[in-house]
Amino acid sequence: MAIVVGHLSTPEGQEALTTAVTEARQRDVPLVVVTSAGRGDDADRAAAIASLESHLANAGVQHSVVAGTGDLAEDLVRVAAESDAELIVIGLRRRSPVGKLILGSGAQRILLESPCPVLAVKP
């Protein structure tokens, strides 16, 4: 069993990571962090992953970091199935009244395809 979360450097992504760390501690299970392919060169990505690893080590949670393929929704669902996850944590953006009628396509795919419960958080 594990908690799965995607790592994005957005406020929504940071809130999801913070919540996932808390959930992993409370449930005493490992945290699996899926990194996005993102932009930038290899050195930038390596520095971001090193920073993430340091943050997770300081948080005192057992963890692993998995490189994403570029489709974060697909990656989260796949990793959740592979790790027998008990929870996926995702961050959602605040939306306008019209935007609230349509959930983001990535979030919708995760909710519909997830093999486990999904916890959606906002910053």
From TrEMBL:
<dbReference type="InterPro" id="IPR014729">
    <property type="entry name" value="Rossmann-like_a/b/a_fold"/>
</dbReference>
<feature type="domain" description="UspA">
    <location>
        <begin position="3"/>
        <end position="122"/>
    </location>
</feature>
<comment type="similarity">
    <text>Belongs to the universal stress protein A family.</text>
</comment>
<protein>
    <submittedName>
        <fullName>UspA domain-containing protein</fullName>
    </submittedName>
</protein>
<dbReference type="Pfam" id="PF00582">
    <property type="entry name" value="Usp"/>
</dbReference>
<dbReference type="InterPro" id="IPR006015">
    <property type="entry name" value="Universal_stress_UspA"/>
</dbReference>
<dbReference type="InterPro" id="IPR006016">
    <property type="entry name" value="UspA"/>
</dbReference>
